[in-house]
Amino acid sequence: MVDDVVLPLTGERTLPGVDHENYWFRRHEVAYQWVRTRWGRPLRGQRTIDAGCGEGYGAALLSQVTQRPVIGLELDIATARHAKRRYRPDVAVVVANLNAFPLTSSCAGALVSMQVIEHLWDVGTFLNECRRVLAPGGLLVLTTPNRLTFSPGLGRGQKPTNPFHVEEFDAGQLVNIVADVGFENTHAWGLHHSGPLAIWERKHGDIVAAQISNVLTHPASAGQPDTWDPMLRAAVDAVTHDDFAISRENLAQSRDLIVVAHKPKGMA
């Protein structure tokens, strides 16, 4: 059964199928696609966790390569219910606080947490839980906005202006935090604008800044695409996976960070 209930747009998470959210949705979705493509072979057959799965679209994408249901952990009950109904049987959703996973130790071969860590009050406890539930050698993948480009001028540890974010990170900072809780082979990747989107920005300026300006100009109707500048609306509608590239180059200028690490093989 497909859930026909439309989740509200609160600003805390993005949703598929919403025209004026298309840029943000594709930016989130492409990271899941990258994991599915780059890590598809080692993920095959592995029990995989999506910690903070939200609407569930990403966990459903990963299930196509794991060839078994992905465990989606989600705190919000309405969102968890929606994901469970919409993506069953590909996603097994569990209502959970990310400070205490209701899962046994060493039960999973991989864990992803996409655009979640910036929302958490206790990052250390969360990462320790990630390490605990991963089997030795297990894969960890985290994504988060790059503070240097998402909140220019914001320093490490400063409270972000985004009301849903507790802290935002730069690449070196996040790599060190992950390594310090016991993960190894920890590396950062960056998501950049590419393709037609990069060409559009060379002519018209930053597409994120343009969307923010639209919200500030029309605060009461920012959620209504009909109030948008037609050129901006067309650009947002046109965004696809081809408008993003992921690499380990020029991390300081990346839009999102992707940190990949492994639990040591000798660690229980």
Describe what this molecule looks like in 3D.
This protein is α/β, with parallel strands linked by helices and 268 residues long. It has a single domain, classed as Vaccinia Virus protein VP39 (Rossmann fold, 3-Layer(aba) Sandwich). It has helices spanning 22-38, 40-43, 57-66, 77-87, 123-133, 147-150, 171-180, 195-204, 207-217, 230-238, and strands at residues 48-51, 70-74, 91-95, 108-114, 134-145, 184-193, 244-247, 256-262. It has an eight-stranded mixed β-sheet.
The main pleated sheet reads as: 8 strands, mixed
Number of domains: 1
Major β-sheet strand ordering: 3-2-1-4-5-8-6-7
Number of strands: 8
Indicate the CATH architecture.
3-Layer(aba) Sandwich
Keywords, please?
268 residues, alpha/beta, Rossmann fold, 8-stranded mixed sheet, 8 strands, 20% strand
Put the structure in a nutshell.
This protein has 268 residues and is α/β, with parallel strands linked by helices. It is 36% helix and 20% strand.
Q: Secondary-structure map with pairings?
A:
Elements (H helix, E strand, L loop, with lengths): L21 H17 L1 H4 L4 E4 L5 H10 L3 E5 L2 H11 L3 E5 L12 E7 L8 H11 E12 L1 H4 L20 H10 L3 E10 L1 H10 L2 H11 L12 H9 L5 E4 L8 E7 L6
Helix pairs in contact: 1-3
